[in-house]
Amino acid sequence: MGNFKTSLTALAVALSLTACSDQAANESATTAAAPQTTQTQQASEFSNVLLQEFPGPYGGVPQFDKMKVEDVKPALRKGMELNLAEIEAIANNPEPPTFENTIVAMERAGSALSRVFKYYGIFSSNKSSPEFRAVRTEMSPELSAYSTKITQNEALFERVKAVYESEELQSMGEEEKRVVSNVYNGFARNGATLDAEGKARYAEISKELAGLYNKFSSNVLHDEENYVTYITEDQLGGLPDSFIKGAATAAKERGHEGEYAITNTRSSMDPFLTYSTNRELREKVWNTYYNRGDNGDEFDNNDVIKQILTLRDERVELLGYDNYAQWRLEDRMAKTPENAMDLMMKVWPAAIARVDEEVADMQAIADEEGADITIAPWDYRFYAEKVRQAKYDLDSNEVKQYLQLDKLREAMFYVAGRLFNFDFTPVPEGKVPVFHPDVKVWEVKDKDSGKLIGLWYLDPFARQGKRSGAWATTYRSYTTYDGETTVLASNNSNFVKGPEGEPTLISWDDANTYFHEFGHALHFLSADVKYPTSHSGVRDYTEFQSQLLERWLTTDEVINNYLVHYKTGEPIPAELVQKIKNAATFNSGFGTTEYMASAIMDLLYHTTDPDKIDPDAFEREQLAKLNMPEEIVMRHRSTQFGHVFSGEGYSSGYYGYMWADVLSSDAAEAFREAPGGFYDKEVSAKLVKYLFSVRNAMDPAEAYRKFRGRDAEVDALMRDRGFPVPEDK
């Protein structure tokens, strides 16, 4: 939402953006009316680009070509000053509180600061530097204090409470009612009901946490940037040509021409561990990656985690909760940590049982080859690939030859056209400012009416200063309460760029991730809501839409038209496609277990007394109790678990990917059952109407029931992963 939402997400932005979708930390209130007028007039007078209204075409676009680190600090401070003045005006309005003069006024406020946060997010995630990190460290406590001034503004909360308890509420539309409820709960759940002493301590804790989140993410980024493994030509055994060329380019960019760089990111680590025949190097790269933030030096995160857990626990105790997870999940679909853990435990036994089978298959091959080893974590991907070839005659590197980044993007556009009626057209270079030459932009229009929906930005490649992983975000969201706005959505990845003049080839898993993140963008682009607050997602639901979109990668229309060989242009052979489908549940034990270990640990961290937790020991002890296979580690080990410890977007909520996957598996079966399959017009229309366009303007559980006619069931997920369906249904 406007000022209140901006105030709370200030922390999320300031503390580093780590979620798969950064939407919640990047919503914009595009406005034009009353309380904003003074701010807009002032902002237009500023020489500081970060505060200025977005100029140019498409309803205005960020001036990414003019952003400078030195502008961040003064822009943040001025934006906070302007926003707090608006807050005071709303809080002290002599008129009786109404939806319009209180809630809508808050939605409308904070636009200048919201614009600053767009640039701040780019500096934090896409263009980080030591200079920016110093600014972020300095500003984190100021942003926290600013946020607290809003959440603890008693006069403002009294007005919100009056609207929440008013007769007016009963006559409002459904979206308006939900906005009021979300705004009220946002205050109540963030200390507004505490006494003076409690509020002071709450504010102090929030400020301390802001600094710790910043420190955690900076430590991880330090290890990602500084622990690069350089290898020589005689150490390239087993590696595909495409990977070798990308590693050579990465080394050259880092001043190591003639060598090959294995960067400390998943997109580099994963293929190296899959193909390298050098076991000693595999172990080194594995350790380098999984020890991020856990090297016993000044950038070690173990103590940071302990401090975060202790402060979080104290903060929710002030609010009357038994533990942090209880507070965090109250407004999620799961409702309680017990419900979330129950879902995990329904799947966990089948996942680790499958791992045992996978390891046995790998060990058999290693023994047959006379390797004289016991499968270790750095062997898993390497021997899994051998099993894949042996059991399914499927070579991941062969598949990769048909997975060109540009062609997959065209495939995503095709799917968006069929399901959402969107048409994507490249924006001529130079028409829209970008923050790096790799970033490209497309116009998005309705295919029938030609109406402009917005723009889609794509930043696909890894580079220094860019955080690892893949994510989606918005620079402006669709709202109508103050006039219709155009959407500015973006996708960001860390693919290793192909050599000059050659296409970028990616793995099947990366292709799935590409579709996944595009699902978030489609969620932004298809929105049809009135207010900014309606974009604030329910975390264990917002991954559902993106996980569902992954299913379209394997549709015949995509496979037959967009998966073509990067040299010959020949379509992927039908027999290779069949192998891919036959192997669809291959290695599901590994994928499910490494994810779930992180999700379970997240819940355990936040339901256990922090006094009893030493992170390094706690991780080992709890995983041992779960019978965690020793050949696998958590997907995100504690010291690098940015989803949970460099902000609060996914804290106590990493289970949400599994919760969302239950929904996506169940929804996918609705398409399979339809006459038109995955492109069935009737089911597609319901998909857009109930699952994409409404955002958070409708209760997610109700929205899903409107789409499916019932609640989702876990059986579909178990079938998808090739696990036995529980008999006690």
TrEMBL record:
<keyword id="KW-0732">Signal</keyword>
<dbReference type="InterPro" id="IPR045666">
    <property type="entry name" value="OpdA_N"/>
</dbReference>
<keyword id="KW-0862">Zinc</keyword>
<dbReference type="GO" id="GO:0006508">
    <property type="term" value="P:proteolysis"/>
</dbReference>
<dbReference type="GO" id="GO:0004180">
    <property type="term" value="F:carboxypeptidase activity"/>
</dbReference>
<dbReference type="Pfam" id="PF01432">
    <property type="entry name" value="Peptidase_M3"/>
</dbReference>
<dbReference type="InterPro" id="IPR034005">
    <property type="entry name" value="M3A_DCP"/>
</dbReference>
<keyword id="KW-0482">Metalloprotease</keyword>
<dbReference type="GO" id="GO:0046872">
    <property type="term" value="F:metal ion binding"/>
</dbReference>
<protein>
    <recommendedName>
        <fullName>oligopeptidase A</fullName>
        <ecNumber>3.4.24.70</ecNumber>
    </recommendedName>
</protein>
<dbReference type="InterPro" id="IPR045090">
    <property type="entry name" value="Pept_M3A_M3B"/>
</dbReference>
<dbReference type="InterPro" id="IPR024077">
    <property type="entry name" value="Neurolysin/TOP_dom2"/>
</dbReference>
<dbReference type="Pfam" id="PF19310">
    <property type="entry name" value="TOP_N"/>
</dbReference>
<dbReference type="GO" id="GO:0004222">
    <property type="term" value="F:metalloendopeptidase activity"/>
</dbReference>
<keyword id="KW-0645">Protease</keyword>
<dbReference type="InterPro" id="IPR024080">
    <property type="entry name" value="Neurolysin/TOP_N"/>
</dbReference>
<keyword id="KW-0479">Metal-binding</keyword>
<dbReference type="InterPro" id="IPR024079">
    <property type="entry name" value="MetalloPept_cat_dom_sf"/>
</dbReference>
<feature type="domain" description="Peptidase M3A/M3B catalytic">
    <location>
        <begin position="272"/>
        <end position="721"/>
    </location>
</feature>
<feature type="signal peptide">
    <location>
        <begin position="1"/>
        <end position="24"/>
    </location>
</feature>
<comment type="similarity">
    <text>Belongs to the peptidase M3 family.</text>
</comment>
<feature type="domain" description="Oligopeptidase A N-terminal">
    <location>
        <begin position="80"/>
        <end position="197"/>
    </location>
</feature>
<keyword id="KW-0378">Hydrolase</keyword>
<dbReference type="InterPro" id="IPR001567">
    <property type="entry name" value="Pept_M3A_M3B_dom"/>
</dbReference>
<dbReference type="GO" id="GO:0005829">
    <property type="term" value="C:cytosol"/>
</dbReference>
